[in-house]
Amino acid sequence: LPRPTVSRLTRSLVEEGFLSFDFEQRAYRLTPVYLSLALVYRDDLTELDLALPAMRAVAEGEEINVGLAVPDQYDMVYLASVRRGRRELFRRIVPGSRRPVETTSLGLCYLAALDEASRESLLQRIASKYPGAEAPVMTRIAHARAEIASRGYCLADWHDGMVAMATALVAPDRSVYALNVSFSSPDPASTTRQARRYGPMLLELARRITDAWSARARERSAA
């Protein structure tokens, strides 16, 4: 952006209380108003209120991690993350944490849930992030779509020794959410064994959540 445009926008954000100037660092920083905006957004999420009890029950009963996320451009943004896994990895994942669509089970299942036109548009934008090296990314996405078509969920490596699996949920208003579980897995054989265990559990959790959403939608329509 031209410097005069940046100056004008920055001045407007300062005047409205969204930015403040740090004289020591000689830079602008966000103000506490963003915490209030996040609370307003959270308070309006009845879908999350309905999903959380079931998510906590699975996370605590199985000692695994359970997350719910929504898309925002190239990323998936966590709405909730119930961390009950035995390992301490990724404790920093909290509501608001962002992860790339193309590298996470959350994002891969979201891509598979999109209609063809929307998916192709997003794939083109993702490919532009990897000029000349997009082939492995597209292969991973295609593999995840095949997994979802056959099993209802896909898997992705989180980190050394951590695996996540996810499925998509569609709310009554047609918004797409992604639900995942993640767990410690030291080797491929362990991943296969645990996928057999947690896959049906993940799909059942998704069914329970979408049933709760549908019931709430019917109550609102009747009222």
SSE inventory with pairings:
Layout: H1 3-15, E1 19-22, E2 27-30, H2 33-43, H3 46-62, E3 65-72, E4 75-82, E5 98-100, H4 105-113, H5 116-127, H6 135-151, E6 154-159, E7 162-170, E8 176-184, H7 188-222
Antiparallel strand pairs: 1-2, 3-4, 3-8, 4-5, 6-7, 7-8
Structure description:
The chain is an alpha+beta fold and 223 residues long. The chain has seven helices and eight strands; from the N terminus they run αββααβββαααβββα. The strands form two sheets. It has a six-stranded antiparallel β-sheet with strand order 5-4-3-8-7-6. The mean pLDDT is 91.
**What kind of sheet is the major sheet?**
6 strands, antiparallel
Structural category is alpha+beta
Please report the number of helical segments.
7
| Annotation, overall tally of beta strands | 8
Quaternary state, please? Answer: single chain
Physical arrangement of strands within the biggest beta sheet: 5-4-3-8-7-6
Strand content: 15-25%
Shape: globular
Radius of gyration: 20 Å
**Low-confidence spans: pLDDT under 50, at least 5 residues?**
none
Give me the strand/helix succession. Answer: HEEHHEEEHHHEEEH
Q: What is the averaged pLDDT score? A: 91
Q: What percent of residues adopt helix (DSSP H or I)?
A: 40-55%
Our measurement of the CA-to-CA distance between the termini, rounded to an integer number of angstroms, reads 49 Å
